[in-house]
Amino acid sequence: xxxxxxxxxxxxxxxxxxxxxxxxxxxxQPPLSKQIADLEREVGARLFDRTRQGxxxxxxxxxxxxxxxxxxxxxxxxxxxxxxxxxGETGRLRLGFIASALLxxxxxxxxxxxxxxxDVRLELHEMGTSRSTAALVTGELDVAVTLGRPRGAGAExxxxxxxxxxxxxxxxxxxxxxAGQPSVGVGQLRRQPxxxxxxxxxxxxxxxxxxxxxxxxxxxxxxxxxxDIHTIIGLAASGVGVGLGPSRMLAAARPGVRxxxxxxxxxxxxxxxxxxxxxHSPVLAAFLDTxxxxxxxxxxxxxxxxxxPG
Length: 310
What we know:
D-Maltodextrin-Binding Protein, domain 2, LysR_HTH_N, transcription, LysR_subst-bd, 3 domains
């Protein structure tokens, strides 16, 4: 039994006449009559009564036609679902990210991806760079946003492109003596109580601070350790000290604080988007298209580094 047999039977039931049904399905009447007869033999029951008044479904035919309609609806639905999945309109995307990526550029990317792909299930996991790298390598994540390029075993199988550049800035309360300064120098920072990130998952930031202030810096060893950027800003606003963090902090500006450049300018690791080089899922492709549209200069880097299927 083939799909066309179901369509022929439904057409015959609708038109009640072999000639009209044959024209509706685009074949001649004799082949249609033969196909219906073959179908009845396969089913083992007469599906239609042929009368001078027309062709009418039997009780067996009515039961068969009800299932046939359902089957054709399911087939059409399967084709529709397959097309949507192939276009990345359904499915799942598992994204790992560092917290500061929620300042920029993830909010715009996630908003637009969710708007354009409402039936894709987004699974979002905040995690540090080392954890998300391991999860990418083992297949627990589809894409990750990390501070710096993923390193370690399996990282060579990932495509990684920078999606944001950062440098160190300072944040102080509006009552702090540095609040009116466009920049603060290393000597000034060494004389102030500092507020820094724990760096447990981002050792490159800690390394940058040590390079700036000195490996054995008393200011760093006595610094207040904060969990994330928002805590650094909040503590600075409270007058606890001078907060140090990435320039993305400017997107989280709040009343009661001022930001200052740090001199000399100290580059921090790039914000990096990574995914499996051999992952060609349509959902990932749709997400990368959204990143291309919303992150300037990323599109060319993605095109250069993406590995073609094969």
